């Protein structure tokens, strides 16, 4: 259990280590084919479903306004920032597609852990993650069509079906397992976050390994875009909550949910729908590494005296 707790606690370090090894020695992770990404993401979503509780959705019905505000910010701020950054940095089409995909995805599962560490409103964070994930099959393909169709043809229906397949179905299966096998689920629920962390790291290793040559050429520029995308997401999310005069804990939760994306889904969609775009999976992989590191730093900042509720 100590090892599992360490993995869960230091997921940012684990993901960074895997990314560095895969970048320096690509063959070390070449055995994880990119075609496995969908299945691996499905495992993460299954784990998420098994850890969700019907009570987690209570806030959606008791205080829908805050969830609506958060999800609206999620699906406007990050896609808009992604598109703007691709134009400012004049990214080639394959990298631009990858950045836009990250921006159009729902909140990442790691956001709930970071919201907890940052002493944000955890119920709002979980509610936003759940709702944005449920909305993703419809919203993500439509936003990609709006923002990326001039760069490459976007098949909305196929993208919708793939998100349902790799996100919604595994989550529903996880909820089903939890409901009908509560005792068995309770025995393994503490293992699931660590398992998800390991799978996220392996996805990053696979993508970085497959694109190591290209990363040597454009790594710095993509890293800069990803860092700016993430940090502006955190900042604008908090500003939206503050502008609407929400309690600081809710503003923190919205900030973290907006800033942290389901970048594993972005990698999966890039690999599945934009196979001709060689670098499309790279922004998602880099985002997976960076947002875990940035999230841990942001959590420290939000727990400082500067953000203590008065």
- How many DSSP H or I helices? 15
Q: Kindly report the average pLDDT value.
A: 83
Distance between the termini: 38 Å
- Specify the biggest β-sheet: none
Broad structural category: mainly alpha
- As residue ranges, the low-confidence spans are none
Tell me the total number of β-strands: 0
Basic shape: globular
Helix content: over 70%
Using only C-alpha atoms, the radius of gyration works out to: 18 Å
**Approximately how much beta-strand content do the residues carry?**
under 5%
Order of helices and strands: HHHHHHHHHHHHHHH
Topology:
Layout: H1 2-9, H2 11-24, H3 37-51, H4 58-62, H5 64-88, H6 93-104, H7 110-117, H8 122-148, H9 156-180, H10 182-188, H11 192-210, H12 212-243, H13 248-259, H14 263-273, H15 282-302
Quickly describe the structure.
With 310 residues, the chain is an all-alpha fold.
Give your account of this protein's structure.
Helix 7 packs antiparallel against helix 13 (248-259) and helix 12 (212-243) crosses helix 15. The protein has helices spanning 2-9, 11-24, 37-51, 58-62, 64-88, 93-104, 110-117, 122-148, 156-180, 182-188, 192-210, 212-243, 248-259, 263-273, 282-302. The protein has 310 residues and is mostly helical. The model has no long low-confidence stretch (mean pLDDT 83).
